[in-house]
Amino acid sequence: MRHLAELKGEVERWRALERRVGELAELVDLAIEEKEPSLEGEIRFEVERIASRLDELEFELAFSGEYEGRNAILAIHAGAGGTEAQDWAQMLLRMYLRWAERRGYQAGVLEVSPGEEVGIKSVLIEVLGDYAYGYLKSERGVHRLVRLSPFDASHARHTSFALVEVMPEVGRDVEVRIEPDDLRIDFFRASGPGGQHMQKTSTAVRVTHLPTGLVAICQKERSQFQNRETALKILRSRLLELELAKKAEEQAKLKGEHVAAGWGNQIRSYVLHPYKMVKDHRTGYETSDPGAVLDGDLDELIKAYLKSTLGEGRR
């Protein structure tokens, strides 16, 4: 049923584009018959929008992974550096939420660990939309920020790091089996805002997968049951991502190459001083407008990376 729903959704996206082309053709005929040059601007605008949507749909056809059409769960972890790194993690959270908004995706915070003074130590967000994982998987890795510190009285230049993890959302009925005896489930009081109800009852849930040590936490809901279900969904996604990483590592070894996803292997640098630039180190793609990128304008960076991996995906 899930696969059928995905296929129906894909067909409907193409049908919707077909209908727009038909409406545009009618508008062109009307402009010719009525000799209305005033419609030219509207026609040009719609042609550009249709061409952009066509490029997007054709690009999505190139996604070959089994899970790339799924929703995504994205985690951000501040690196070493205290306040600086925690503020950088907060900036990345805003960037991804703005990106999701631009694409018409739904995004929400599942769990957050606030920083001591500003920013966040870590955060887990859910991004709902067609091919959310297919696009966001390109963001997996270490992100580096270079800027004049707003927290340093001398305004010295600082370098901060944050790690981004991306996992496909997994349903209860597929892919990952979890034995009840392999789980430890703890309940605790939710931190942060939430009113008296959340302070008096242990609604937050922490699920630990004993064989792997993986942990999933959820405290966004007022219901203990809802938090438990969400935490289990997060855990299934983490286990699936672990399995996918193992397979990717095995394939890389067979090809004679393997690069660990360690802190020294940053995928992208965001430089705000002494010059302005965002550069993806995997593709060489760069832009001189980091403000736009940090405001969610990520599509060109993401597409440049995905296009560079399409050949590997087809193999």
Just name the CATH architecture of the largest domain.
2-Layer Sandwich
Distance between the termini: 28 Å
Instruction: Decide which structural class fits the backbone.
Output: alpha+beta
Output the number of helix runs: 8
The major sheet is characterized as: 8 strands, mixed
**DSSP strand content:** 15-25%
Radius of gyration: 22 Å
Short summary of the structure?
The protein has 315 residues and is of the alpha+beta class. It has helices at 2-34, 40-61, 83-103, 132-136, 195-200, 224-254, 290-294, 299-314, and strands spanning 72-78, 106-114, 120-128, 141-148, 157-168, 183-188, 204-209, 214-218, 266-271, 277-280, 286-287. The protein folds into three domains: 2-61; 72-171 and 265-314, Alpha-Beta Plaits (2-Layer Sandwich), CATH 3.30.70.1660; 180-253, Double Stranded RNA Binding Domain (2-Layer Sandwich), CATH 3.30.160.
